[in-house]
């Protein structure tokens, strides 16, 4: 079912210094509770990025032409920054915003069927305040979880090119560096996200095995980071020794795309299982 309609809203203003590569004067990203943090500043810069000409043209074209069901929306039409608290212990990495989902609402996985599945599962395992995500002002909160993607702009046919993935990687690397004092577990949705995320983890300071581990649903890969300072008080679950202080455990999970969820390749139970296991490793449950 498509997300409920919301009244058209004017795009808010963004500080002029927000973007290193502005496509045009950019609006502020949706509030995420991190607006005064370094991560909030990063979100502002992401939202103003215009580095990929093909994706800039596509996201703006979609925002202009719209889907009939959302004709009364003012589409976001810009890069969609990560969503969730700056001290998240669990990170979920997707692929890229959907043309009429995140690209419309301005928040990760918000307003599309993939998000319906993801947020329902997060709510079911106690990591979200509500099971639905329809707009930036719907009141949704995530508990210790942040959601991001290796490509922040909606791509045609949901397929970014390798060049666009690589161009966007520095944003993910910066996000990981800002999260690493608290980050303990990561769920990567799908093979594209997996291939994009592992190099970003390496660049952000974690030790990634070589050859890089292949993506599979349910796979778990510990990434040590022995050079990172230990979180005050240590991990809540006392497992600092498993990956070393500052280490993270990365989980593979099939993407919550309709192709996977409609066919039963990824069931709600499978998704809940990965999320709850990762939340346990992160010390959230
Ligand atoms: S995909 Fe990433 S690098 Fe490319 S324009 Fe969007 S935010 Fe910028």
UniProtKB/TrEMBL annotation:
Keyword Metal-binding: yes
Regions of compositional bias (Basic and acidic residues) in chain numbering: 228-239
CDD domains the UniProt entry points to: UDG-F5_TTUDGB_like
SMART domains noted in UniProt: UDG, UreE_C
Residues annotated as domain Uracil-DNA glycosylase-like: 81-275
Keyword vocabulary terms for this entry: 4Fe-4S, DNA damage, DNA repair, Hydrolase, Iron, Iron-sulfur, Metal-binding
InterPro entries: UDG_Type-4/5, UdgB-like, Uracil-DNA_glycosylase-like, Uracil-DNA_glycosylase-like_sf
Renumbered residue ranges of the record's region Disordered: 1-35, 217-242
Family: Belongs to the uracil-DNA glycosylase (UDG) superfamily. Type 5 (UDGb) family.
Protein's name according to its UniProt entry: Type-5 uracil-DNA glycosylase
Species: Streptomyces asoensis
């Amino acid at each position: 079912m498509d997300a409920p309609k919301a009244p058209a809203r004017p795009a808010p203003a963004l500080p002029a210094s927000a973007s290193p590569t502005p496509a045009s004067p950019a609006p502020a990203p949706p509030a995420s509770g991190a607006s005064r943090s370094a991560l909030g500043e990063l979100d502002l810069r992401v939202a103003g990025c215009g580095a990929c000409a093909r994706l800039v043209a596509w996201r703006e074209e979609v925002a202009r032409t719209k889907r009939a069901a959302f004709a009364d929306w003012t589409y976001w039409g810009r890069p969609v920054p990560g969503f969730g608290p700056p001290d998240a212990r669990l990170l979920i990495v997707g692929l890229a915003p959907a043309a009429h989902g995140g690209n419309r609402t301005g928040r990760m996985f918000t307003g599309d069927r993939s998000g319906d599945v993801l947020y329902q599962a997060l709510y079911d395992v106690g990591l979200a305040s509500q099971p639905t995500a329809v707009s930036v002002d719907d009141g949704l909160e995530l508990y210790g979880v942040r959601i991001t993607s290796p490509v922040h702009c909606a791509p045609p046919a949901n397929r970014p090119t390798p060049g666009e993935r690589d161009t966007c990687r520095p944003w993910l690397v910066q996000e990981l560096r800002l999260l690493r004092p608290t980050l303990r577990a990561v769920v990567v949705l799908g093979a594209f996200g997996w291939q994009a995320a592992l190099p970003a983890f390496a660049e952000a300071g974690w030790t990634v095995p070589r050859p890089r581990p292949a993506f599979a649903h349910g796979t778990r890969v510990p990434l040590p980071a022995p050079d990172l300072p230990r979180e005050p008080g240590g991990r809540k679950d006392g497992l600092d020794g498993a990956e070393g202080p500052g280490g993270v455990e990365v989980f593979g999970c099939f993407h919550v795309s309709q192709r996977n969820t409609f066919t039963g390749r990824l069931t709600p139970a499978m998704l809940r299982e990965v999320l709850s296991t990762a939340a346990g490793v992160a010390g959230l449950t």
